[in-house]
Design goal:
By secondary structure, the chain is α/β, with parallel strands linked by helices. The protein has helices at about 40-50, 55-60, 70-90, 100-115, 120-145, 150-160, 170-180, 185-190, 200-210, 225-240, 260-270, 305-310, 320-325, 345-350, and strands at about 195-200, 215-220, 245-250, 275, 280, 285-290, 315-320, 335-340, 360-365.
Amino acid sequence: MESAGEAVVFPLLKEWVDYTYRPCTIPYRFPSDPPHQPTPTEMLWIQLFRRSIPSFSKRAEMDDSVPDAAAKARVFASRFGKMLDDLEANPESHGGPPDCILLCRLREVCLRETGFRDIFKSVKDDENAKAFVLFEEVVKAADAVADDGGRLEHLVKCLLAGNVFDLGSAELAEMYKSDGMSFVKSVEKLLPRPWVIDDLDKFKLMWLRRSWKKAVIFVDNAGADIILGIIPLARELLRRGTQVVLAANELPSINDITYAELLQIMSKLKGEDGKIQGVDASGLMVINTGNDLPVIDLSSVSQELAFAAADADLVILEGMGRAIETNLYAQFRCDSLKVGMVKHQEVAEFLGGRLYDCVVRFTEVIA
């Protein structure tokens, strides 16, 4: 469904009732901090975004849909760098103080104002094509696990392995440029459990006990993430009789999958009988979140998503941006799962874990 009208609050957000919802997980500043001086945490994140400028600028240079892309890429790098300089000098500039949402917003503004709409389009298309080739094999491997709990664990690990593909991380952008990314290797290289937040056994127990009527899944990256991670999990939910809403960004941001792109993916994966590898997909819906960032503030989503999600009893947030850097501690009026890989050292240190550690946070709501 297309997004239209004013944004609204995500209806399953429990904290909105008492105004305690804060989308950002990390506390960037406290009331006692000097208002015109950046905090150490703010400085840390300003530098994190500064390190991303070369990889974003390089991708912008390669965007052959934009005339004079190389010159405009230099303008983008200069403008965004100047904004970060301003925030270092005065954290209240540019709508600050800064957090991950504002910093993502400013970077996207700089890209769009200099003429770039989707600088990762070609790499998303390439990764989608690679993932399509592996899809049937990944699904068959999951179906071969006879035990329901074991199959769920396998699917979650596939989801985490797919979530490695994130070009918003400067380190992963360099890794992708030099070596590419292999889904099979990513599965093999997952850090061993226990992870920094590890409710997988708790989620497995509830999976075996409960049948959810509707699940809303906030999706993340293109390529292996969506095709080999999210969709096999969604397929398993459909097989169990759960309706599934896949909620995707309205506009491009980094290598996140968009609503329009996800519609195309689903049309390729569904057979003429409307099934996904033998599983009826009539209960699956793709919805536009109204969002345009790799993070999400759930106090502002599309009316279409709010309507589709109102009667859901399971919310799944996937990816570092939506499930870890924002909304890790968000509370819902239904069961919720936050799952993703930690791809910034700053986040790993905050959580007390390791770089490329995994987060599986499950919260049961007892009626």
